[in-house]
Amino acid sequence: MNTDDKKSSIPSDKVKLFEVLKNQTLSKLTRFSWWESSEAMEQCEIAHEDVFSLTAGPVLLYFQSGLVVGAASDPAQNSVVIWVERDDTGYVTEEPTENDTDLTISALDNQYSNSYWNKIVGQNIKMINIIKRDPQNALLAELQNEVGVELVMDNGEKFILSHGLHNNSDDFSVIAESYIDRRLLENLERVKLM
Hints:
The protein is mainly beta and 194 residues long. Helices cover 12% and strands 34% of the residues. The protein has helices spanning 15-21, 37-44, 51-54, 138-141, and strands at 26-32, 59-63, 68-74, 79-87, 90-91, 104-106, 125-133, 146-153, 158-163, 172-175, 188-192. A hairpin with an 8-residue loop joins strand 9 and strand 10. The chain is globular and about 40 Å long. It starts with 14 loop residues before the first helix and ends with a strand.
């Protein structure tokens, strides 16, 4: 499966991959945390039901087709990054995130996630948008500034693979739109991919 420029992980360079994802069923969302769930609560100063969304570490999106897509953020690009973790031929990454099974949290975890994710998992992706942020200084103006990938499901619910949108940081998060720091809204632009 050709999924665009294999060298670039920036969302706008992954249009062909997003075209493949459209209308696919999201069967599972798994977060790979740097810490055990209880420690993540302390390290990130978050409530137990927000560990899936706000812990540090990448996320993998599993699709019924067998495709697995990873997402994290890259502060050096001021952007979310996207990669194909596994396609129909097997693993495509040299060091699969998926092999790190010790510290994982499911979106459907009863303790360390919230019920919002029940409206996401099992749905088809209807639309994908990139969220760009106006650069706040000359250094950021040189970077990608693609701070979010918004996935809209066929039931109308959506979630965002986010680079710091929840707290104006360099931290990766997987959030509902309501988690976006309101102070950032005027500097954000949604670019519809499909």
